[in-house]
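[recover] target loaded
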């Protein structure tokens, strides 16, 4: 069965980013961090809330990951590890929980969470992603 992934964006802050949760088959898996909405500007904005297909991708920087396909006006929107807004570059960061890092709002335990996600996705080269906003 093809995985069904949903990101529910819960909060957006121009200084700290867009915080949400990621669900796999309707169960909460982790928290997310994306840039705030800046009208889909490449490397600076979250992507529009809608439905996407995601494909397994070998990134030169992040290694094996998944790429969000057919984002209007964008490419290389990836899932990867990171902690702060400056780490997103328009991508989706996955982590275990919300917190602070050096006094800044952040997501934490990202590396382990991303590795766990990739283990869950073993045997799957694609998944369906729905992004919704509830703020």
């Amino acid at each position: 069965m093809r995985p069904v992934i949903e990101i529910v964006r819960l909060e957006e802050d121009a200084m700290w980013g867009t915080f949400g949760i990621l669900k796999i088959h309707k169960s909460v898996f982790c928290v997310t961090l994306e840039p705030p909405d800046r009208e889909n500007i490449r490397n600076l904005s979250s992507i529009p809330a809608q439905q996407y297909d995601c494909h397994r991708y070998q990134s030169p920087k992040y290694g094996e990951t998944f790429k969000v396909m057919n984002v209007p006006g964008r490419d290389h929107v990836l899932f990867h590890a990171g902690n702060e807004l400056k780490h997103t570059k328009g991508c989706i960061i996955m982590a275990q929980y919300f917190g602070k890092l050096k006094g800044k709002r952040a997501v934490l335990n990202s590396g382990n969470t991303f590795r766990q996600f990739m283990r869950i996705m073993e045997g799957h080269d694609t998944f369906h992603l729905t992004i919704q906003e509830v703020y």
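[recover] notes: The helical segments are 110-120.
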